[in-house]
Amino acid sequence: MAFVRAIALAYARRGMSPLGALAQAQIAPDALHEADARITAWQMERISDAAMQELDDEALGWFGRRLPWGSYGMLARASISAPNLRVALARWCRHHGLLADDITLHLASDGGTAELAITEARDLGALREFCLVSVLRNAHGLACWLVDSRIPLLGADFAFPAPPHADAYAVLFRGPATFGAARTAIRFDARYLGLPLRRDEPALRQMLQHALPLTVLQYRRDRLLVQRVRQLLGAPAAGHPAHALAQHSAESLAAQLHVSPRTLHRQLKEEGATLQALKDEVRRARAVELLQRSDRPIKQVAEAAGFLNEKSFIRAFRGWTGHSPAEFRRAVRLP
To answer: Within this chain, do residues 187 and 93 fall inside the same structural domain, yes or no?
Structure first.
């Protein structure tokens, strides 16, 4: 409800009444004064849409000047022809500054992590939280749509103290949230920046007719999910590197990816993969590497590949290659 109160404040600053927008969103005016009140995603979408049109301001009062209806659509059009997400987001950041100089958006990547950050050029006042949250959700939602992929967040940082409704941030930004940070930013795997755009002008026109769900709702499909699961499966487990694969259940992987186990299995299926097949792929690659490049006993290779005993490893390896581990090692080491 704090965000609805921010919209009501934008109306008040313009000398206008928010009652019509509240009615369209089926929000009782008295609820504005209930500290613990909550709204649905549909209600947030409806009141935002009504307010943007009535105020003719897609920024809903955040900035020193209005952003007339269609401003963010213009930014999207400037990005749609980019070859990949990195270029598209860089354009979005640069062109956003042409519309409003109250904030500056920055895109950077380092060490495999990408960051989209906001620098505040002036005091945003009572609408500060609503502004910063909305700008990041807008950019994140558009980025997901452009590459037709959920872009999971590694973290979200906010340059303001934790608000009373801080628990809502787990819905707005799936991933660890930090308050009182040096600046406001979201972080994600930089590999998403290399994904090509999957949208064209007709798709953009259709999306702009109903764009707010991109800001309000989380995107579902993750086009890098298979790669991310492989990476997690291949990472050593703390204290027991040899048992990493054995410890990686669907539940533990889903928790690291900030999805439910059911969602994990469903999205892997959509990408033509299964968790068991990915585990076998990682196990096989690790076993082959150790058999080729080390003299470890077969029992140790089996353990390092995530098998509980040598017998099950030999059976699985024969199924993968048609040879036992010992036969494979002899074959690959022949001069």
So the answer is: yes
Indicate whether 95 and 167 sit together in one domain. yes
Task: Please compute, for residue 142, the number of CA atoms within 13 A of its CA located in the half-sphere on the CB side.
Answer: 25
- Give residue-wise pLDDT tens across range 61-89: 999 999 998 999 999 999 999 999 999 99
Q: Is residue 168 domain-resident? A: yes
Residue from 69, 19, 12 nearest 212 by CA: 69
Which residues, at least 6 apart from 331, have a Cβ–Cβ distance to it below 8 Å?
323
Name which of 268, 227, 294 is nearest 286 in CA terms: 294
Span 285-313, pLDDT tens digits:
888 888 888 888 999 888 888 888 899 99
In terms of C-beta density within 10 A (0-12 exposed, 13-18 middle, 19 or more buried), how is residue 180 classed? exposed
pTM of the model: 0.72
In a domain, 36, yes or no: no
Q: Which residues contact 275 (CB under 8 A, 6 or more apart)?
A: 229, 250, 253, 264, 265, 268
> Cα separations (Å) of 278 from 53, 225, 254, 265, 295?
48, 11, 14, 12, 26
> Do 97 and 154 belong to one domain?
yes
Crossing angle between the packed helical segments 85-99 and 71-79, to the nearest 10 degrees? 150
The span from the CA of 8 to the CA of 16, in Å, is: 9
Q: How many CA atoms lie within 13 A of 241 on its CB side?
A: 5
- When divided into structural domains, the chain yields a total of 2
Range of the domain at 138: 68-206
How many CB atoms lie under 10 A from the CB of residue 60? 23
Same domain for 139 and 192:
yes
